[in-house]
Request: fold
Amino acid sequence: MWTWPKSRLLALTGAGISVESGLPTVNDEVAGVPLRSLFEPWIWEKRPLDAFRAYRQMVRDWQRKRPNRAHLALAQADLPIITQNIDGLHWAAGSERVIELHGNLRELRCPSCAGIFQSALIWRSLLPSCPTCGHLLRPGFALEGEQVRHIARAMDWLGEAHGLLVVGTELQMTPVRTLYEIARRRNLPIAWVHDHAEEWVPHLLGQEGPVDSLFRPGEV
Reply:
């Protein structure tokens, strides 16, 4: 029988938790641009018009998405969340402790002066520039090869955790793989939900009864 610690659970989430909300995966396209390419620096350097056209489409579409039962269950349980996602659905669900390792869609950033601005600037010009220094802006999410955000705080949260709930991520990339390996070395109880997060997350948190999908909670 799988049992959770009574307190200090930590959630680690990836793109799979947002599938039920209708968000695309990295294998999809946005405005004719492979979504995977938008996380590579070259397209922002060589094809900024195409990149920002796809970015606008992402912002327009993703703002209409709503949290699903998995997001809402984590918020209701008041779990701290470390996420790879940039969609902001954990905040929309009401979670108050969220670390967005890869940034978000809500902001733009200046690679020259390090300024941070609201993504509303994308509607003012085809190629939005920094209001401070005039440099061409970049999206508010981390591109390939760039450093992730708030990893020290994520390590602190993991150090305080008594259990880890992994949802919708294969843990193939650092630093989330590193966080998982640290949890294993600490012998933390780990539940890893690959699919049907909207069913299993509420169940594992004691908010709903049995579910129909085949899954045994525990480490995979």
